């Protein structure tokens, strides 16, 4: 009998996945497959052991970007030779949305059972891997300051409202950026280093991004006037792409970034290390069901 391990976060997306859990079990069961359940905890205790002992041919993760981030790190660090399926069920599911995996569960299960996969790049900061985005600057704290109840009620609209309310308080910092050995300095508000084109639930942010080209895309919002910043924010929210008037756009396989003020980073929606930051692309680092 074919076996798959389902890793699920019981509280992601206002705990909505618990309503779909029975459907998941039923769908795999009717197709003659065994679905083994793993309920997440903070440390993902013994997850690698579950994967090895179960002899599962694939790992499915149901949760938001943070849950996906944690499972990706276990798979890569433990050198688990199993593909990963992303069942989007959190407030933010950027990477799953970019791949078109956030909807259409029945069709996705069929592709999983047909073993349709591709290898994708990951980013690495020290010993930590990330699948979609690393960022730092004036917007970084917003995701962590949004009230959990508001986030679960309004979804990504909670981030929009918080971001708009903070615009008048933005202060620029001076960034030093080394991209594949080329140095430059730029005064700006924030930067993101993206694997996919969707960042913070906004579509078409990194318009040239590819998840398997061995490069990540860096976008830095330059220092500009408040009206220009409002206009740029409107472009981002619209999802129609961003003009490069007040944006520095770079592609590279390695970045080193420092700032003249203390800044914490955000990595796949979780609080990351303070700057300076060294980001390396790890090509074709993980296999995904698509």
Which key terms come to mind for this protein?
single chain; 290 residues; alpha+beta; Rossmann fold; Tumour Suppressor Smad4; 2 domains; eleven-stranded antiparallel beta sheet; four-stranded parallel beta sheet; 15 strands; 35% strand; elongated
What report would you give on this structure?
It is a single chain. This protein is of the alpha+beta class and 290 residues long. It has two domains: 114 residues, Rossmann fold (3-Layer(aba) Sandwich); 153 residues, Sandwich (Tumour Suppressor Smad4), CATH 2.60.200. The strands form two sheets. Strands 5, 6, 7, 8, 9, 10, 11, 12, 13, 14 and 15 form an eleven-stranded antiparallel β-sheet that branches. Strands 2-1-3-4 form a four-stranded parallel β-sheet, sandwiched between helices. A hairpin with a 2-residue loop joins strand 5 and strand 6. The longest helix has 13 residues. The protein starts with a strand and ends with a strand. The relative contact order is 0.16.
């Amino acid at each position: 009998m074919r076996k798959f391990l389902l890793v699920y976060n019981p509280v992601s997306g206002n705990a909505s996945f618990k309503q779909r859990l029975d459907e998941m079990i039923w769908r795999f069961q009717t197709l003659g497959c065994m679905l083994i359940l793993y309920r997440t905890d903070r440390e993902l205790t013994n997850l690698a052991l579950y994967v090895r002992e179960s002899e599962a041919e694939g790992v499915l993760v149901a949760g938001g970007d943070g849950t996906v981030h944690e499972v990706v790190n276990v798979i890569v660090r433990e050198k688990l030779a199993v593909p990963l399926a992303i069942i989007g069920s959190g407030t933010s599911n950027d990477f799953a949305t970019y791949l078109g995996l956030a909807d259409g569960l029945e069709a996705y299960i069929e592709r999983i059972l047909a073993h349709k996969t591709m290898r994708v790049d990951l980013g690495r900061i020290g010993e930590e891997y990330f699948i979609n985005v690393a960022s730092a600057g004036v917007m970084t704290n917003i995701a962590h300051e949004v009230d959990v109840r508001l986030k679960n009620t309004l979804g990504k609209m909670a981030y929009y409202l918080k971001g708009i309310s903070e615009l008048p308080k933005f202060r620029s910092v001076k960034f030093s950026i080394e991209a594949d050995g080329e140095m430059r300095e730029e005064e700006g508000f924030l930067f993101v280093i993206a694997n996919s084109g969707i960042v913070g639930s906004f579509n078409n942010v990194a318009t040239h991004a590819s998840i398997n080209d061995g490069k990540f895309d860096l976008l830095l919002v330059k220092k500009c006037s408040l009206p220009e910043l409002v206009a740029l924010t409107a472009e981002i929210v619209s999802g129609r792409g961003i003009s490069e008037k007040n944006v520095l756009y770079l592609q590279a396989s390695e970045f080193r970034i420092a700032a003249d003020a203390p800044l914490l980073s955000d990595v796949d929606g979780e609080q990351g290390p303070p700057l300076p930051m060294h980001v390396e692309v790890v090509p074709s680092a993980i296999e995904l069901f698509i």
